[in-house]
Design brief:
The complex is a heterodimer of chains A (about 90) and B (about 325).
Chain A lengths: L8 H22 L6 E9 L6 E9 L6 E5 L8 H8 L1
Helix pairs in contact in A: 1-2
Chain B lengths: L6 E8 L5 H10 L6 E5 L12 E3 L4 E3 L8 E3 H11 L7 E5 L6 H7 L4 H6 E11 L3 H7 L1 H9 L2 E5 L6 H14 L4 E4 L21 H4 L16 E8 L5 H15 L3 E8 L6 E8 L2 E9 L8 E8 L3 H10 L9
Parallel strand pairs in B: 1-6, 1-7, 2-3, 2-6, 7-8, 8-9
Antiparallel strand pairs in B: 4-5, 10-14, 11-12, 11-14, 12-13
Classes of the chains: A alpha+beta (about 90), B alpha/beta (about 325).
């Protein structure tokens, strides 16, 4: 599920960069203020109820309900166009 | 792996009446030299007016399609982010859960995101057990078993209300579910707070320091509990090229039922111990200190879970034992 410390440090660094990019895209696209919280998690659950690798984004604007957006792509494969499409 | 700049977070679980409120009141009123921000649940009974007590309204998000190992607590993310703006006013955070809560979403919240992890570290999951009512609670609620299973530290409270032989039965039952947690016996939660807070019990570095018995020989505990444990050991080193892909596959495939896993591994031709742990499908592992000269090089892996695929785990573990001889 949520990627933790990878056994491969290089991969961890890559995921951190990808995560930061996704957060920046979300903040930019939704014009979020600094007090909004955005979390990004790559999920790879093999439970039968779950669809496999996807990226889950929690968007928490101050004083507003939290929005959960899920994109069926791995974190490192996400492009700005994927974020735009998911947020529309 | 442990960053001292991060704020330690202690998760407090336990059934109604076990003693959570007693411990929280002590934490907030006694002079123990540290200040804790306390996040209490909506049903909490804290009657203390303190600007570091924050009420939470449980907001669970299923990050995937509904299995418990993909859920986090959105309310905690918001509250902790708010607390981080008051950094310097407190030394640690304690999260109280409701008596019936599954600890998994709370624990997983602290691994959801890089920024959450940068600010906080899960210090320990503490479960308070009412020794007097434990056996009865265990029979009627599966959450009680899960709270025992997830714990790094178990406060066995109200020991004055049971006889020695009853207490022994309770401890044996607890050990059957969770053989690796540290157990502290108390009356009215009269424990030194420094014994359970900021212990780094969740950290890989401390897996075995908290509970040295982990390294000792353990036998299987057989009970009718849904949750049980499996301990696998080897006197021969493992092959990392076989073990690491296998353990990742295991927690991803069976993580719904594997509540916790902890292990210390000797890899072939590797001077340092490798430690590993998981909560459901969250897995972390790292090289630790070097094996000491007089230290038995025993690999031990403990799974705690529901309907564990015991034969599969046993066979996979044995296949991970290195076939080649270690280089002198």
């Amino acid at each position: 599920m949520i990627s933790l410390e990878s056994f491969n440090p290089k991969e961890t660094v890559n995921l951190k960069q990808a995560s930061d990019s996704v957060k920046n895209w979300v903040r930019h696209y939704l014009s979020l203020t600094d007090d909004a919280i955005v979390t990004v998690s790559e999920i790879n659950c093999r439970d039968k109820k779950c669809p496999g690798v996807e990226t889950a984004i929690l968007i928490m604007p101050a004083g507003q309900p939290t929005r959960l957006v899920k994109i069926q792509r791995s974190l490192k494969d996400l492009q700005f166009s994927d974020i735009k499409e998911a947020l529309q | 792996m442990t960053l001292q700049t991060t704020i330690p977070v202690t998760v407090l679980t336990g059934f109604l009446g076990a003693g959570k409120t007693t411990l929280l009141n002590r934490l907030l009123t006694e002079n123990h030299g540290k200040r804790y921000a306390v996040i209490v649940n909506e049903f909490g009974e804290i009657g203390i007016d303190n600007d570091l007590v924050v009420n939470s309204d449980e907001e669970i998000f299923e990050m995937n399609n509904g299995c418990i190992c993909c859920t986090v607590r959105g309310d905690l993310i918001r509250i902790i982010e708010g607390l981080m703006r008051r950094r310097g006013q407190f030394d640690g955070i304690l999260v109280e859960t409701t008596g019936l809560a599954d600890p998994a979403p709370v624990a997983q919240t602290f691994f959801v995101d890089d920024d959450v992890r940068k600010n906080t570290r899960l210090d320990a999951i503490i479960t308070i057990v009412d020794a007097h009512h434990f056996m009865e609670t265990l029979e009627h609620t599966h959450e009680a078993q899960e709270q025992i299973a997830f714990a790094d530290i178990i406060i066995l409270n109200k020991t004055d209300l049971v006889k020695a032989d009853q207490l022994a039965v309770v401890k044996h039952r607890i050990r059957g579910i969770n053989p690796v947690a540290s157990i502290r016996e108390t009356e009215r939660c009269n424990i030194e707070l420094t014994d359970v807070l900021d212990r780094n019990a969740f950290s890989l570095e401390r897996i075995l320091e908290v509970e040295p018995e982990f390294l000792n020989s353990m036998h299987e505990h057989e009970h009718d509990d849904d949750v049980s444990s499996l301990s696998l050991t080897s006197n021969q080193p493992l092959d990392p090229n076989v073990f690491l892909p296998w353990i990742q596959e295991i927690v991803q495939s069976f993580g719904t039922n594997i509540l916790r896993m902890k292990g210390i591994i000797e890899f072939i031709n590797e001077p340092n111990r490798f430690v590993v742990q998981s909560v459901h499908m969250l897995l972390e592992g790292d090289h630790q200190r070097a094996w000491k000269d007089n230290e038995p090089r025993i690999t031990r892996l403990v799974f705690i879970g529901r309907n564990l695929p015991r034969d599969m785990l046993q066979v996979g573990f044995e296949k991970s034992i290195a076939r080649e001889s270690a280089t002198p």
